[in-house]
Amino acid sequence: MAAFGLGTHISSNNFKSVLLLAGFPVLLLLLMYGLFLLYAGVTGDFGEYGYGVEGPFIWAANSLVTAWPFAIGGALVWFVIAYFSHQALIDMSTGARVLTRQQDPRVWNLLENLCISRGVAMPSLRVIETPALNAFASGLHEKQYSITVTSGLLQSLDNAELEAVLAHELTHIRNRDVRLLVIAVIFVGIFSFIGELMFRGLTNVRFGGSGGGGSNRSSSRDSGGAALIAIVAALAIIAVAYALAIVIRFALSRRREYLADAGAVELTKNADAMISALRKISGNAEVANAPAEVREMFIENAHVGIGEIFATHPSIEKRIAALVTFAGGRDDLIAHTPVKSGPWGAA
Question: Which residue stretches of 119-223 are H helix?
Fold first, then answer.
């Protein structure tokens, strides 16, 4: 059952990665159309297409026809840059730096032994100088894979606990979780960038003072109803496009953390070490100024939003409960509630 569940999880990650890439152009065009429509409604700049209800919609469609090659081209350039430079972007956003063997032979030896035991290439190691206790893996393919840990984690965990965390992150790499997460970060990032850029342009046009003469005022009066309808429709379209982009975060199965915990136990044969590491991390995981998209890669992300429905990670308590129930781990602090399904079926 474990092998079947893991194989299904990896296949699902591969499928979702392809689906994200295929669906990106459609969602990008939807967002652009909504922004063009909002521009038309707010400025009333669509007179040549008539002052009826259809005016701003026709103007937005024609503008989209003109602009889409540049938008898609820009998005492709962003994807190429992100493909080769995403680790540098993540490092800049978190303050991470490369960690050499000479600087910390302990963590290097622990990770190297785990990789040798599985016959996999060793990812690079990075460290974030912060007292917070956290870690994450990143990369799109073997030559790019990296595991980043915080200095607080290195100082607070003993060898067995640190080995369990490294095994957890190595499992994310083996399960293709990191590739899907990086693609999702790039996907949502381009939406945020384009949205901010176009809203800024819209604000400048709306409040920048390039008011019109008498004909503009007349057009505004004639097209007031159409503009209002256009604004409402545009906001609805933008909300749908943005919501779909954000939902990508929540579509990333929280099951990945249960599977990575199980993978860590499989690699280290030490469920107690994984539980102890999670106990130390709990309540001490917040990395200041880390972007929300990067926090989703962390071993613990306590920012769950509105209830657990929108959580990117299962709670530490649930993860420990699964380790106690299914991996034979021990934890004296847990208010243990029997888990009804294993890591491959937990929500």
Answer: 151-156, 159-174, 177-207, 214-222
Active site residue 169: yes
pLDDT in tens, 158-216: 999 999 999 999 999 988 888 888 877 776 666 665 655 555 555 555 444 444 444 44
Distance of alpha carbon 241 from alpha carbon 246, whole angstroms: 9
Domain ranges for the chain, please list them.
2-94+179-251
Q: Count the helix, strand and coil residues of the chain and give each as a percent rounded to the nearest 5.
A: 65, 5, 25
Q: Which two tokens stand for residue 282?
A: 């709990």
- Residue 131, classed as helix, strand or coil, is coil
The CA R_g of the chain, rounded to the nearest whole Å, is: 24
Catalytic, out of 48, 112, 161, 169: 169
Query: How far apart, in whole angstroms, are the C-alpha atoms of residue 64 and residue 53?
Result: 18
C-alpha distances in Å from residue 100, one per residue of 103, 159, 284: 5, 18, 25
Strand order across the 135-138 sheet: 96-98, 124-128, 146-150, 135-138
